[in-house]
Design brief:
By secondary structure, the protein is of the alpha+beta class. It has a domain at 9-75 and 101-176 and 272-353: 3-Layer(bba) Sandwich (FAD/NAD(P)-binding domain), CATH 3.50.50.60. 35% of the residues lie in helices and 28% in strands. It contains ten helices and 20 strands. The strands form four sheets. The protein has an eight-stranded mixed β-sheet with strand order 6-5-14-15-16-13-17-20, sandwiched between helices. The longest helix is centred in the C-terminal third of the chain and has 31 residues, at 322-352. It is globular and about 65 Å long.
Length: 374
């Protein structure tokens, strides 16, 4: 990268939520930012996600919360129905003002569009079909060889390349990716009129629910317990998800018919990672799912990723010594992220034991904890 203007330079590996948020946060502070992404431009995994209060708070710090709320579906309440039909609800903390929703559901392509547009507006360069193959630490800088054979020498290398992070494996010991016995299904459907917040339904064997992501769309999720970690043909997914929903009654009957008609169904293993060794090595650091990937039960993976980008930029602003700034970043983030990952795993275990009366309070307590200042 050209350092002729004295600006610090960053290479970010991964153009997902963590990578694009970090790109904007650094570019806003005058960094020269380049992002490389192994996938194709426009490719996103899954149909939707939840931006909880901490997500919106961090996005508000980047000036993007209102755009995300406008593109998604604002809400404040999670309603849970257990296997006996007992209904309870939790109102999530309002972190960007009581007149604003506590959280939002949003289509993944919409969120990526907003984050990518902002990063480009601030001057970041983004390249697709490209990753990193080798990393060497120098005197206050990192030399990264890319998969096209070119080399970048930068002040900062950020690994935001997901749960199977290449950067993580290059700068530290391999991390264990844990499978927790659940497969998570998602189907894109028209939003039911009654779905004005997140609704979950616990069955005798599995859990399901609805998350609105726009005025017209929602996604149905189903968490399949004691599931084989295998791959099913895409053509069978809608039918098979419908079969898993068959034992449910009430409102699930309505959404089941929409699932069976959906041409947008995905099935993924529930996996987690928490790197309990260092997240940084010299002037390189891993963030987001590369460092701490929770299970989806807390709907907070996006929150941690977005917070990471903002906090990383703040610490690099406070301290010009990149090594010390990365140490401060990890100190601020480690405990919070570990609690979230561990809580999500505990909830997954309680679900498989059909102990929903314990999982709901644990979920609510963790949301309150995540509402505390970063």
């Amino acid at each position: 990268m050209d350092h002729s203007d004295g600006a610090r330079s960053a290479l970010i590996v991964g153009a997902g939520i963590a990578g694009l948020t970090t790109a904007s946060a650094l570019a806003r502070r005058g960094w020269q930012v380049e992002v490389v992404e192994a996938g194709a431009e426009g490719a996103t995994a899954g149909w939707g996600l939840s931006l909880t209060g901490p997500s919106l708070r961090a996005l508000d710090g980047l000036g993007l919360a209102e755009q995300c709320l406008a593109a998604g579906y604002g809400m404040s309440v999670i309603t849970n129905a257990d296997a006996n039909g007992v209904v309870s609800s939790m109102e999530l903390p309002h972190l960007i003002g009581h007149d604003s929703p506590a959280m939002a559901g949003i289509a993944r392509p919409e969120l990526h569009r907003i984050l990518r547009t902002e990063a480009l507006r601030l001057g970041a360069r983004i390249h697709y079909g490209l990753s990193v193959s080798r990393v060497d630490q120098g005197d206050g800088e990192t030399r990264a060889e890319l998969t096209d054979g070119t080399v970048r020498t930068v002040d900062l290398l950020v690994g935001a390349d997901g749960i199977r992070s290449v950067v993580r494996d290059l700068i530290g010991p391999p991390a264990e990716i844990r499978y927790h016995g659940q497969m998570v299904w998602r189907a894109l459907v028209p939003r039911p009129g009654w779905a004005t917040g997140i609704h979950t339904f616990a069955g005798a064997g599995h859990q399901t629910g609805v998350v609105p992501i726009s005025r017209n769309q929602a996604y149905v999720f189903l968490t399949e317990n004691q599931a084989r970690h295998d791959v099913l043909p895409d053509a069978d997914l809608a039918r098979r998800m419908g079969e898993l929903l068959a034992p449910f009654n009430g409102r699930v009957t309505e959404i089941r018919s929409e699932v069976e008609r959906s041409d947008s169904v995905v099935r993924r293993p529930l996996q987690t990672v928490f790197v309990d060794t260092s997240w940084s090595d010299g002037t390189s650091v891993i963030i987001g799912d590369a460092a701490h990937a929770p299970s989806p039960q807390m709907a907070s993976g996006a929150a941690l990723a977005i917070e990471d980008g903002l906090v990383l930029a703040q610490e690099l602003d406070r301290c010009h010594d990149t090594r010390k700034a990365l140490e401060a970043f990890v100190d601020r983030r480690r405990e919070r992220c570990e609690v979230l990952v561990n809580t999500s795993v505990a909830i997954a275990e309680l679900e498989q034991q059909q102990r929903h009366e314990h999982s709901y309070p644990l979920m609510e307590a963790c949301h309150q904890l995540m509402a505390l200042p970063v």
